[in-house]
Input
Amino acid sequence: QVWLVESGGGLVQAGGSLRRSCVTSGRTFSNYAMGWFRQAPGKEREFVAAIRWSGDRTYYATSVKSRFTISRNNAKNTVYLQMHTLKPEDTAVYYCAPTTTTAYTFSVYSSRGVYDSWGQGTQVTVSS
Output
């Protein structure tokens, strides 16, 4: 079983920045690709970004591309989501999750079904 502890959520004004962190334990972090998803009230959980186990490739939802950056530090068992130019529509609970996939395909990483655990989620609220 993997444990995921997220931090870095909060309230920010539109145009501001936040950095999310997700620390994992219970597995060898470097063996897993990591993804970030989000869920707004009344909506389905949607893909935000993912990074391959090796860090050699990243994937982004169109809505966040050029504003968000996913990265990882395997020595710290941590994946990050740096969010810039935040918009009110970015308001959601954000979740991190691991996956064993080694694919190079966006459609794989953006699918909820390939992720086998979820963090507790942390609220990000962007005020207009």
Summary: The helical segments are 106-109. The longest strand covers residues 18-25.
